[in-house]
Structures are given as C-alpha cells and as structure tokens.
Design a protein that fits this description.
Length: 436
C-alpha cells in the first residue's frame, strides 16, 4: 500500500533499528564541547538536537528531507486544476514520509484532510466567545489546546497503549489537527476583522489552501496560489527554533499533539520569532510615508542610515544561521515577478534587496546582510488585499504545523525520551571556574 500511514509503518522499524545501532555502537563518541558562552548564549552553536525533516545550511539554504527548497517547490505535484503551485499537503507528505509524493499520494492527503476537517461545535463556541482584544495568535493557541478532547493519543494512552504504538495515535491526531487548522484560523480572521461573517464549511472540491482562503473570504485564484506557496515555505526550519523546539519539548512529556502544538504556537507569537513579519510592513509604511512610493536610491540610502542611526535594526534582513539571501525570500520574489511585478510594494522590496545588503556590509558587524523570509511576505499578502498585519503570524502558524507535527510523529516513532537538561547554580559555576 502507498498511503502515508502505510509508508510510515514500513519505514519506522528500519529507522528504529538504525538509531538503536548508532546508539549502541557510538553512544560514547563526542560531538563537541560545551563552553560557558554556549550555556549563557541561548545554547547557540551546540549540536544538541536531531532532526531529519529539514536542515538549514548557512550557504546552501533550506532543505526539506535533503531537497533544496527551490527544488521542493518545483517538484511538488500540481494536484489542483489551474494551479501553478504544489500543495502544502504534498509538503506534509514529503516532511513526514521523507520522500517526494507522487500526484496520487499528495492528493490523498488533501482528501484525508477534507474528510477529517469538521471542527467540533465546542471549538466554534470557544472562538465566538473570545473578546476581540485577544490577539489572533492567543486565540489560535487557545483553540489548538482546547481541541484536546479529540486526541486519539490520550484515549489510547489511558487504555494502556504500548510505547511502540504511540506514533500511530500521534499520527492520527496530527492529521486531524492539520485538517482543523484552516477552519480555526479563518474563524479567528472573520471574527476579528469581518464582524463574524464568513463561510465555515469545508468544500470537498477545494484543497487545504483553497478552503482556508475561501473561508476567510478570498476567492482570487492568485491569492490561493500565493497561500499554497506561503504555507509550503514557512512549514519547517530544523528543530532548534522556538516553535519547533517547544512543540518537541512539550510532546516529550507525552502531552498530546494539540497541547504540544499550542505550546509551540505560544512561542511563535513572540516578536523575535513569528511576529517579525509585521515589523517589516510597519517599517515599509514609515519609509513610504517619509519619502514616497518611488524614492531615489539616495533617499532610500538616507532612510536606511537614519534607521540604523536611531539604534534600530533593518527588519527583514539578517539571520541567525543563513549567510545568503533566504531561499524563502527568493521564491516569494520569483512568485511576485510572475504574478504582480508592478505592485508598488513588490517593486520597493525588490529595489531594497539591491540596496540594503551594501549598507549592512559596510557596518562590518552584520553576519548576514541579506534579506530573510519576512522581508517579502507582507507586500505579497497586501497585494491581494490582506492588510491585517496583526493576523500574519497565524498564517505562519498554520504552515508551521506541517513541520512540527511530522517532527512529533517521528520523535514518538523513535521513542525519544522526555527532555530534561541539567541546570546548575551560579555558585556551582563560580566554584568550578575557580578550580579550572
Ligand atoms: N540591521 C541592523 N543591524 C543588524 C541587522 C540588521 N538587519 N542584523 C544584524 N545586525 C547587527 C546586530 O544587531 C548585531 O549588532 P550588535 O553587536 O551591535 O548587537 C550584529 O549585527 C551582529 O548580529 P548577527 O550575528 O548578524 O545577527 P544575530 O544572529 O544575532 O541575529 C537576527 C539575527 C535575525 C535577529 C538579526 O539579524 C536581526 O535583528 N535582524 C532584523 C530583524 C529580523 O529581520 N528578524 C526576523 C528574522 C527572521 C526569522 O527568523 N523570522
């Protein structure tokens, strides 16, 4: 059989054996040393986590299951009539199974999510009762956690399911959660920004992205294709980032996927993580207000220097790992060049790409002067009329499910234990240092 679950059922025993072998044969080998600065610096630079769904190479960019992101986008099967993009469902298959799906396999995920997507009434009630001042991300986290009565894992665990079987229930929960997310996210959007109006029913002729856009009130097929691309690009980024790692950490306590994902999303809501995409638009709005939509190079350079002089960073530029233009930026720009190259925001972002790296390089301290994913996403969403910046991180969150949930399935499949790093007191450190 070729269903995703069957592919997993075949692959998991092999991977288990491989891991066990590595652990038995090489468990004592050293991967590096721990410096005080690593510990005091947010664990930066330590090889502490294993993650096979994706990998970020400083120079070569982002890989999903070993395939460069650009190639992922090019090769994902086009399952929707008239669409020029692959589907996020296909990306989920790739990240979970470790293999590029064929058209039938990608389509099968779409069909499964249509079937599983009927959101329980109590979740609608919860969302409808939310005060509009509760941030869209806080609503998203609350609803994700509140879906936990749906958990097949909890049910099986309480009935005494055995550890080697855990992944099957985590898989079921992950599939159901993905299926629920477009409805959850679109209800939040419509409740906050459209006075509660909007369609709440999944249409079985539409894929995951099309249903999501449709329920938010967007019918333009160009916007749906943008959403497909957006949801593919933001899905996975190794396992050390805050949202992925939090999901893993909470999942390691055997909290169910609804709770684990919700915890990860609480982290995504921070301004140093998922919230950064709205900062870029705020800055671009200021730029346009100060020097207009088609400023000269000199005017732009002066504006950038003023930003830096005021002690602020240029938002959308730089990265903790990447040392080249973020492929997610390039892929969005390629989409923009094909679909809306005359949009004033797109033109401005494209011009800035030519100007900002030079300025940042001259500072001499910026490790990566090139644009990241957030430098582009906002102007594209605005092109199609989605102006509610406060909502953008929810789109990121819906996408991130496609990465962190496969990571969770695999963690249980491989029997990853509860995470529990050891901490030490400052006193201990001082005594240790005085001896060394
Ligand atoms: N503009 C101005 N200065 C910058 C800069 C930028 N875009 N990026 C880095 N620098 C500065 C840093 O502030 C730091 O200065 P300091 O020593 O005076 O404090 C110096 O360059 C060295 O920093 P770094 O090693 O290059 O970056 P980092 O790994 O510490 O941080 C990041 C990475 C993304 C937080 C940083 O580049 C930044 O603040 N960028 C702007 C904000 C942004 O775009 N965030 C979104 C990140 C993408 C994402 O993950 N969602």
């Amino acid at each position: 059989g070729g269903s995703l679950k069957e592919v997993l059922a075949k692959k998991i025993p092999q991977e288990r054996e491989k891991m066990l072998g590595i652990k038995c044969l090489h468990g004592d080998k050293k991967l590096g040393e721990i410096k005080v600065s690593n510990v005091m610096g947010g664990q930066r630079g330590l090889l502490l986590l294993m993650c096979d769904t994706s990998y970020v190479d400083p120079n070569k960019g982002i890989f999903y299951r070993g395939i460069p992101l650009k190639e992922v986008c090019a090769k994902l099967p086009r399952t929707q009539k008239g669409s020029k993009e692959g589907t996020p469902e296909g990306a989920f298959y790739l990240l979970t199974a470790g293999k590029m799906p064929n058209k039938k396999q990608a389509k099968a995920v779409t069909t499964e999510w249509q079937k599983r997507g009927k959101l329980p009434d109590y979740c609608f009630k919860l969302l409808d009762s939310m005060d509009k001042r509760v941030h869209p991300m806080a609503q998203f986290c609350a609803a994700s956690a509140a879906l936990n009565p749906e958990s097949k894992f909890v049910e099986a665990y309480n009935k005494g399911a055995k550890k080697p079987k855990y992944w099957e229930y985590i898989y079921e929960d992950s599939m159901n959660l993905c299926a629920f997310l477009p409805t959850v996210a679109s209800v939040i959007y419509c409740n906050i920004f459209k006075g509660g109006k909007g369609n709440r029913k999944l249409d079985s002729s539409k894929d995951w992205s099309d249903n999501f856009c449709n329920m938010m009130g967007y019918k333009d097929s160009g916007f749906v294709d943008l959403m497909r691309l957006y949801l593919i690009l933001h899905a996975d980024h190794e396992s050390g980032n805050v949202s992925a790692h939090t999901t893993q950490l909470v999942g390691s306590a055997l909290s169910d996927p609804y709770l684990s994902f919700s915890a990860g999303m609480c982290g995504l809501a921070g301004p140093l993580h998922g919230l950064a995409n709205q900062e870029v638009l705020v800055w671009l709005d200021k730029l346009v207000a100060a020097i207009g939509c088609e400023p000269s190079d000199e005017q732009i350079l002066k504006f950038i220097n003023d930003t830096l002089k005021s002690g602020r960073v240029v938002p959308g530029y730089g990265h903790a790992v990447l040392r080249q233009t973020d492929p997610r930026f390039s892929l969005q720009n390629a989409f923009a060049m094909k679909n809306c190259k005359n949009d004033p925001g797109v033109k401005l972002v494209t011009r800035l790409w030519k100007l900002i790296p030079k300025v940042l390089k001259e500072l001499g301290k910026v490790a990566n002067p090139y644009p990241n994913v957030d430098a582009h996403s906002g102007v594209l969403l605005q092109h199609y009329g989605m102006n509610e910046m406060k909502y953008y991180t929810v789109l990121f969150g819906v996408s991130r499910a496609l990465g962190v949930l496969p990571q969770l399935i695999w963690a249980r499949a491989l029997g990853a234990p509860i995470e529990r790093p050891k901490s030490f007191t400052t006193d201990f450190l001082c005594k240790f240092l005085s001896k060394s």
